[in-house]
Amino acid sequence: MLTIYLGTAAAVLLALHYCILDPLFLGAKAKIPGPKLYALTKWRLAMDDFRGSRTRTIHKLHQQYGEVVRTGPNEVHFSSLDALQKIYGAGSGFERTDFYRMFDVYGRQNLFTFHSSKQHGDRKKLLANVYSKTSVSKGAIASMVEDRVNEYMSLLAGNTDKPVDMFKTLHYFSIDSITHFLYGPKTGGTSAVTGNHGHRALLDDILDPSRRRLSFFATHLPRFTKWLYSRAGSMEQLVRPFLPMQKPATYTGIRAHALQACHDARVAISDSSVSDSLEHTVIRELFQQAEKSRLQDLDIASECADHLLAGIDTTADTLMSLFWALSQPQYLHVQHRLTAEIRSVAPLPKNGGLVEASDKFVYLDAVIKETLRLYAPLPASEPRILNSDSIVAGYAIPRRTVVAMAPYTLHRNPEIFPDPLKFDPERWLVGDVQTRLRWFWAFSSGGRMCIGKHLAMAEMTSLVTAVYNKYSTAIATGFEGKAPAITSRVELFYDERAAQFEVIECNAELMVFPTADILGTGTLLPNSIHRAIFNLAVAVSTASVLNE
Ligand code: HEM
């Protein structure tokens, strides 16, 4: 009996030590500021994930506790430049955490999900050339981007009498651009902008709001989620009501398309009648180096599929935020100045010169930077881990502690970006621009920064140039006072000056502003090139919402 008592007492003491005393008082992380409940259990931050408020909550914790905040028993969040350098600087040794494994495709790891710097570095070497600024901004890839821009302009030209749903059409533009870049026009390049219904339908599962719930399950209950989705037969029927997102789950269509594209490209590469179409594509680059680098076709398929997924929402959401911001009455002066800059070069180069010409517009660059600052498409934490103890921002960080930083918080530091919620491209042109650039983190930094940055910039600069060279934009009737929201992992992000948030059914997520905030006095630019002011429904919507 005594043994049982002693055993129970020892177990209770141990539990007390590991669950309360160590995290709150004794462990090395106990000195790090932050709310006690977050330090006690990882489920407190998970609750914020569930509510879709993680990034904003962490931002508030930084405002309350300072540059270093403990956000979990094993998690610390930072918001200073020295932490940025220490964790994400080239050669820092910090690696991506298991969180990223949910982005493995077809069971294979890829550039995005590799933990080790060695594996990552080896794969990156294979891709560096095709993604470099030199290869993207000139020649065949620049011409390919220009072709996609021209198709988008034709889509707009065919819609001058009615508003255009920017959310959907910009997604068509981004999926067409990235698929052509990865697979070429004949073996996977999509034609969503020009009206291919099958290719447009690839985006359907991205638009389903329940994808955020699936992200929550995949993040916090990865094994259970895998188990749920891999059931077959009668078990599948049984678990169906409990699926966080009904099948097809997010990106199912795109993953299937990417696998088929890889298969078709493999066949095409040895068929001289179509192999030319693979010139300058990512998949060709990988096939060519496959033997030397011991890459199997499934590794290549996974790599390309991940880039396809990474290249859709990011670019489309940024463009949507940009057009929406510039269409607000209070920011018409920004639209006017941008239009004047673009129209100062007349006529714009064609036949492959658009990307290079757009890259030179200084004000356009400032507008895109400001959009990425305030409406970063990936604003949330980027978790990292190190296999040895370290000191970050003056705090001892034990080995295998998850450390993270978020563009959202870095981009809202009022000391660096005064009046941070104001959309003000001017801040990238005057004052201490160098310091602001060091805090600009939309594409991350160091060895694991976004490899698609130059492609994304080429797509965005050339599309915005083409649109404002020909049109003015304004909010369509019925959408005044509303703003789009974007989905990123478990969260929705929207302009935080909004007083109210309203999720409208049928995939549309709109917000309502207080009227006083949004009504400005700007006048529309007389459009010398196109007769009428072109109304863009800069809103996340489906047809039924447009008709409301
Ligand atoms: C506005 C557009 C884009 C933004 C803001 C953006 C942002 C980012 C960020 C913040 C990361 C790091 C994420 C993390 O560590 O958690 C990243 C990584 C990555 N991005 Fe992008 N991205 C954009 C467009 C693209 C495009 C068009 C591609 C197309 C290929 C792409 C491919 C990738 C890949 C493959 C990685 C992983 C890189 C590595 O680990 O070495 N991104 N991106």
Automatic annotation (TrEMBL):
It holds the Pfam family p450. SUPFAM superfamilies: Cytochrome P450. It comes from the Eukaryota. InterPro entries: Cyt_P450, Cyt_P450_CS, Cyt_P450_E_grp-IV, Cyt_P450_sf, Cytochrome_P450_monoxygenase. Heme binds at C450. GO terms for molecular function: heme binding; iron ion binding; monooxygenase activity; oxidoreductase activity, acting on paired donors, with incorporation or reduction of molecular oxygen. Keywords: Heme, Iron, Metal-binding, Monooxygenase, Oxidoreductase. Its cofactor is heme. Belongs to the cytochrome P450 family. PANTHER family: CYTOCHROME P450 (PTHR24305), P450, PUTATIVE (EUROFUNG)-RELATED (PTHR24305:SF164). This is P450 monooxygenase. It comes from Meristemomyces frigidus.
